[in-house]
Amino acid sequence: MTSARVPRIKLIIFAKAPVPGVVKTRLMPAVGAQGAAQVAKRLLEMTLTQALHADVDAVEMCVSPSPEHEAWRVCSLSCLYAGTSAVLWSDQGTGDLGQRMSRAVARATREGDAVILIGTDCPELTVSKINEAVAHLRRRSVVITPALDGGYVLLGLRRHLPMLFQNIAWSTECVAHETLKRLRFMQIPHYVCEALSDVDEPEDLQRFPELMLSLTE
Questions:
Q1: Taking a C-beta distance cutoff of 8 angstroms, is the pair 145, 193 a contact?
Q2: pTM of the predicted model over 0.85
Q3: Which of 36, 44, 147, 191 could form a disulfide with 27 if both were Cys (CB 3.0 to 4.6 A apart)?
Q4: In Å, what is the CA distance from 192 to each residue of 149, 150, 166, 196?
């Protein structure tokens, strides 16, 4: 008896262009609009570098604004050229975060891939942490890495589950709790990885001095 085929795993990074005054606005009282944008760019570069070295079959940047926007040309992500894997690009499109993530998952799973969604706010989401999630996703339907602030920094799915993206109070402390509650209600096998810290508030910067260095570059 043969085991079920393990699908390809696509890692999709949800990212905003590091435009001053648009990204990381909660950091602006401490570091200003330009400083917040520099931190956002450094976080994006760190995330993409880890993703390109992870044990996945494809890496995609799902971005806002669209990949053709001038903001992406001027931000010059050098790490795009340091890895050996090609990076796919897609447009997040319109709607709230749940609608945008749901569309990305639906598209990837329709193409036959399992998918891991990550943001760019978590310096602790290293290659080893991503690979841990990949290993669990090869055996389970869902894997989630909560954030210590109540959200999540990684969500892996082997099929599209629209209920996980509908009527969620995004950017609140209840996101991971509500997601896990729905998985239990649907009786879907899942694995919860260790919770990690992300960077949203000025005090978060103190835990990651490498981000503060980006402000002097």
A1: yes
A2: yes
A3: 36
A4: 15, 13, 20, 12
